[in-house]
Amino acid sequence: MHVQDWLDTVPAAAVYALVGLVIGLESLGIPLPGEIILVSAALLSSQHAGINPVILGACASLGAIVGDSIGYAIGRRGGRPLLAWLGEKFPKHFGEGHIATAERSFQKWGMWAVFFGRFIALLRIFAGPLAGVLRMPYWKFLIANVLGGIIWAGGTTAVIYYVGIVAESWLKRFSWLGLVAAVLVGLTSMLVLKRKAKKATAQKQQAEAGPEPVRAD
Fold it and tell me: Please, is 120 exposed, middle or buried when counting C-beta atoms within 10 Å of its C-beta (0-12, 13-18, 19+)?
């Protein structure tokens, strides 16, 4: 069976549920490829009459908002010990450098770090829990969370859907190129953040070590 024929047999409800669940868990603080899942589903909706892009965007937005809110509650309750525990369990995602980079973003941008963090791969994982740990007022968090979730999830769905409609004949032969492009964008953002995290870790270690003692001759 051709891949497209197989995709046409996937129930719409299953697609909506999968997108909402994965994006919700990612927003909660679990490292999952939410953006890749959303792009793939939006591309599928442009070629699958049974998948409504409006419902898809709504499910993705709801997953993002609810997941971030739960992450905020967990972070507020768990505090910094939670970040330390996550750093031990998931050092590649919650290492000291990553947390330091995200924390500087919050200190600089405040509530808008939650909004803009929705558009950056690794910050999507940190936004909710870190906002809770830093005791950001919930009303500020909620405004940025709702706006970011709707614009990111709804906007991504709309853009990919209309690109799929306009280039339907081309995408039927090269449908995976859109997914590859999304992966490359995600990887690029992750590499940039990892580089900043590594630099932040080195600076923190240097600061903790303090100045070298002066030797008396």
Answer: buried
Please state the pTM of the whole predicted model: 0.69
Contact 113, 106 (CB under 8 A): yes
Closest-CA residue to 166 (of 3, 39, 46)? 46
Q: Is 26 exposed, middle or buried (0-12, 13-18, 19+ CB in 10 A)?
A: buried
Per-residue pLDDT reduced to its tens digit, 38-55: 988 888 888 777 889 999
From its phi and psi, is residue 135 left (phi > 0), alpha (psi between -120 and 50) or beta? left
Reported as a single tens digit per residue, the pLDDT across 95-148 is: 666 677 777 777 777 788 888 888 887 778 878 888 888 888 889 999 999 999
CA 71 to each of CA 34, 78, 124: distance values in angstroms, whole numbers, following the listed order: 15, 10, 11
C-alpha distances in angstroms, 70 versus 64, 73, 119, 141?
10, 5, 19, 12
> pLDDT for 145-158, tens place per residue?
999 999 999 999 99
